[in-house]
Amino acid sequence: MNQEPYTPFQLEILAGIPSELPDHRALPLDANRAPKRPKVLNQNEEILAIKNALRYFPQALHPILSVEFAQELAEYGRIYAYRYRPSYELYARPISEYPGQSEQAKAIMLMLHNNLDPKVAQHPLELITYGGNGTVFQNWAQYRLTMQYLATMTDEQTLVLYSGHPLGLFPSSKNAPRVIVTNGMVIPNYSSRADYDKMAALGVTSYGQMTAGSFMYIGPQGIVHGTTITLLNAARKYLQLSKDQNLGGILWVTAGLGGMSGAQPKAADIVGAVSITAEINPKALLKRHEQGWVQCYSADVDEVIDWAIQAKKDKKTLSIAYLGNVVDLWERLVERKVKVDLGSDQTSLHNPYLGGYYPTGLSLEQSNQLMVSEPEKYQALVQESIRRHFKAIHTMVESEGMYFWDYGNAFLLEASRAQIEGIYKEDGRFIYPSYVEDLMGPMCFDYGFGPFRWVCTSGQDNDLDMSDQIAEKVLLDQLEHADDDIKQQIQDNLLWIREAKGHKLTVGSKARILYADRVGRMKIAQALNQAIATHKISAPIVLGRDHHDVSGTDSPYRETSNIYDGSRFTADMAVQNFVGDAFRGATWVSLHNGGGVGWGEVINGGFGLVLDGTTEAAQRAESMLCWDVSNGLARRAWAGNVEANYAIKQAMQHQPNMKVTLAIPADETLIKNALNQATNQATQK
Ligand SMILES: NC(=O)c1ccc[n+]([C@@H]2O[C@H](COP(=O)([O-])OP(=O)(O)OC[C@H]3O[C@@H](n4cnc5c(N)ncnc54)[C@H](O)[C@@H]3O)[C@@H](O)[C@H]2O)c1
């Protein structure tokens, strides 16, 4: 498609990495910057890191850039090539504003921009979308080159990204994905945190988190729905709340107002609870307050607690932020014997020593300095803080009957590494279940419900409204024919989609999250595609999901924590998902090491699929979405999860050409007897 004359925005994208040195614009002073990373490279390795970064630039610029990169490495522990930030603003523009020959590639550019939009991203200058270290690219040269490739590629090519590095465009076909992303793939024996620190500083690997490195992050809305479901079901299960009741008078205490954790107070408001969320970083707190996602805040711990006690008494919905360290909040709650009903934590403990978790006793600034200048001392302080953190929570559970869940941030894993006694039960599991073990796993993932999402590439509210109505209609139809096993989930999701617009959740692109199962996702996709074909929706829609889902993620302390057949440390499911999605019609696919709970702890993947109203798009969506959910259902059923067994049998009924190997359950007493018999025979010999 000829778009000439090009706009300045398009021209800058098409120029890629310019041959002339761009102006060095000052970094905005008010930006939320990523913490400095500790110095981990020796001199030879520093030379290699700079040499690696210079590979993107003409030799004539090396004298200037080598000095600049050496300074960046010394100051930040990484080379970001700040000078190469684009001069245009980064945000998801309507798809028609992007240059290019491939509508699919334009949709990917839009999604990339959304993930780097300062309103959406956590540390946009360092290309970090969320989770403290979830990067889209390692440096701005990679960004520029990738955008240029996307703007010039055809539907007969595929762009390959190795941890943010655009390896290049390779010939493929219309049916192949336009982009294949891998982030942080390493040889398993080299997947320690120290390995990551070194390879990331060398500029050869990156931490893509989950949706950050696959351009599918849609702001904290993406997590609000899941958090709402978790809270509701925690209260139903542990506080005996009836199905139609809200959480009036229930106090929930947690921490973190960052990328995902920022969803917590909003979700608490949606279900009518009283919440206190501790956040040590004023920038993160104020961002959520300005967005209206948290109602009030104070740095005075007693004031915060007084507000919560009063709201609890009045059964008033109130989200409070405490500007300070979460450990100080928990310890004061214990001292004052406040009855907290529900407790969790969403500090970034998957990254405890590099700014994910701030130890009590130090200010934010002191921590940021100490973690670089004296890493060992800092690590000891973090571990001590985790011990106090855990102790206060445990006391609250014992004395006030609070229900605590690990919120998938590696809280209990890090607590175990901080040598806390009594953290394991006899069967080797942690004393507190993770939210997946108890709530999301059996209630959602095992039935195929997960965080499906879509983005309207026109950027228009009308399209988003229409898509909400379409999804509501699909869920209503589904509810009419649903079995009792899944009626409650569909009802919760129906309520969600009806109220979603009113919650003003959209930050950045015109996106919607909606938990849906296999059938729901397939039907919504078909209905959206039809609406594009008949011009009820004015431009293509990008489908995707959080990686935190049924099939995309193998994470033994989170998504697959409710797998009990000994296979939770395997990662076949996530890898198969990535490959299976790719050849069934995804527009792009991604596979990452280390999303959510930390480097080396998880393999996860995701996809994006562009619906453009064509029959081919409808076929791709049908085939890919069916696999994308059924893969996990089949694995979960094989592991013995009864809900998944039900769901995969349903799937096989609907899809006669799906034949899944089903597990035949065995009687444990029989096995124990057999083992005893074998032992007796061995001792008699
Ligand atoms: N929201 C979800 O449903 C969900 C699901 C799974 C996992 N998680 C996990 O939750 C964690 C948080 O994710 P995020 O994207 O919000 O990360 P983030 O880094 O953007 O936010 C974490 C926030 O915690 C604050 N913090 C750190 N230590 C603190 C302390 N001691 N006291 C008070 N505040 C402190 C930080 O300042 C930061 O703003 C991650 O580990 C993520 O993997 C979230």
Q: Would you state the CATH class of the largest domain?
A: Alpha Beta
- Measured by DSSP, the beta-strand proportion falls in 5-15%
Low-pLDDT stretches are: none
> Rg, please?
25 Å
Fold-level CATH name of the largest domain: Rossmann fold
What topology does this entry show?
Layout: H1 8-15, H2 43-54, H3 62-76, H4 103-116, E1 128-130, E2 134-135, H5 140-152, E3 157-162, E4 165-171, E5 179-183, H6 193-202, H7 221-238, E6 251-255, H8 263-270, E7 274-279, H9 282-290, E8 296-298, H10 301-314, E9 318-323, H11 326-335, E10 342-343, H12 352-356, H13 364-373, H14 375-400, E11 403-404, H15 411-417, H16 435-443, E12 450-456, H17 461-481, H18 484-499, E13 510-516, H19 518-533, E14 541-545, E15 553-554, H20 572-584, E16 588-593, E17 603-611, H21 615-638, H22 642-654, H23 668-684
Parallel strand pairs: 3-5, 5-16, 6-7, 6-10, 7-9, 8-9, 10-11
Antiparallel strand pairs: 1-2, 3-4, 12-13, 12-14, 14-17, 15-17, 16-17
The chain binds nicotinamide-adenine-dinucleotide.
Nicotinamide-adenine-dinucleotide (NAD) binds next to helix 7 and strand 7.
